[in-house]
Amino acid sequence: MSGARNAVEARANLTDAARVLTAARGGWRGAALARATEGRPAPGFGDLIALPDWVRWPTPDRARLARLVALADLAPRLSRVVDGAVLGGLAALVGASALDWAMRQGEGLDFVPPLAAAPASEAFDARGVALLAAALPSAIAGELGMVQADPAPAPDLARQLTQTALEAFVDLAPTIPTA
């Protein structure tokens, strides 16, 4: 019985993933039109299977995850920052708890130059979204309307930063403000 239940759950997850992808582009026709005008292939079955759970999260939670991923990207440069304005600017973007977490992540990386200024909110959020997009298969990122940065972050780095952020997300999400 559990095998049948697992198969039903797997089909439900795939159906949900397909709905998420098509809803982002205005339904099946909108998604097909967007693919055609952007010159992208349709996502395949393997892309749906690989769709991470966070793609289905509500928009505020995905925004918090993007901020946490962008913060994880800055972590190696944070442990040596002593400028209160820089730290205060970042704390306003992500909250003090998330900033403390990121500073601990970067400890021991003394060869990396410290962050000189806090990034602007829009640039910080765009970096997080670009990293999340780079962590996805390109067909999926395109279906979700996630713009890949130019130059795009390395997919392996993006996946690693996303995984690091996901591991801390449950504890830190309530403290991260959204735009």
What is the H-and-E element order? Answer: HHHHHHHHH
How much helix, percentage-wise, in residues?
55-70%
Biggest sheet record: none
The helix count comes to: 9
> Low-confidence spans: pLDDT under 50, at least 5 residues?
none
What is the rounded Rg?
Answer: 18 Å
Derived from helix and strand composition plus strand pairing, the structural class reads: mainly alpha
State the separation between the terminal residues, measured CA to CA: 46 Å
Strand content: under 5%
- Form type: elongated
Topology, element by element:
Elements: H1 2-23, H2 27-38, H3 45-49, H4 59-78, H5 84-94, H6 96-105, H7 121-135, H8 138-143, H9 155-172
Description:
The protein is mostly helical and 179 residues long. It has one domain. The chain contains 9 helices and no strands. α4 crosses α7, α5 (84-94) crosses α6 (96-105) and α7 packs across α9. The radius of gyration is 18 Å and the shape is elongated.
List keywords for this structure.
179 residues, 9 helices, mainly alpha
